[in-house]
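COMPLEX REQUEST
Ligand: magnesium ion
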Amino acid sequence: MGEPMLQVRDLHAYYGKSHILQGVTFDVGEGEIVSLLGRNGVGRSTTIKAIMGDVPPSGSIRFKGREIVGLKPHQVARLGLGYVPENRDIFPGLTVRQNLLLGQKSTRHKGRWSVEDLFEVFPRLKERADTPGGVLSGGEQQMLTICRTLMGDPDLIMIDEPTEGLSPMMVELVGKLLAEIAERGVSILLVEQKLTIALRISHRLYVMGHGHIVFEGTPAALNADAAVRKEWLEV
Ligand SMILES: Nc1ncnc2c1ncn2[C@@H]1O[C@H](COP(=O)(O)OP(=O)(O)O)[C@@H](O)[C@H]1O
Ligand SMILES: [Mg+2]
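STATUS: Structure written out below.
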């Protein structure tokens, strides 16, 4: 086996003088769904912002064999790293289809995903194709944000708390969409607080404590480890 698609080693990041990430180390392999779990405020969002270059990182971040520490967010994105932030920042005045087309990096190259593919995977968006994005429900906007990022044809997509505030039915749909994305060979780093879909769809999981990783293992291992769940996850 070669180098993992994403290799994060001893990552540190600060907000002013606050030392937020204190040596975070993990990997995401090709085609893998990996979850980064933890309570609010432990540094999960900061970790993906540091990988994107939105927050200045120190340490090593290798993506597809290349060191990306020091690159700007648009350069990281161009290498094939997709990022879906917590806030569902769609363009409310544009239709669903227009929102999707804005996610394309180039109209010349055909990526893995077309608008029609995404409509097939998510018929609900198809029904809404000509509806302004702002009219969609929270869950539909979440789907749209993920799908728009896929239009940029990432090799790995990092998704920050996609199920936050969604109904159980929409959580199911998001889970299905993520599984479908991975089946097409796109790696996923899923940030979550709840175990619901993470345990079901992940190949491996990491739990974060205050600024570092406190557990790494399979869903079965985390399921069996009541002590870790109690200390680091249960609210
Ligand atoms: N822009 C910021 N400025 C200062 N502190 C921040 C900022 N964003 C997050 N923090 C702090 O950094 C810590 C980690 O936050 P975050 O990475 O958002 O955690 P999580 O995503 O795991 O909930 C928290 O203590 C939070 O208050
Ligand atoms: Mg967060």
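REMARKS: Residues 6-232 form a domain with the Rossmann fold fold (CATH 3.40.50.300). The first strand starts at residue 6 and ends at 15.
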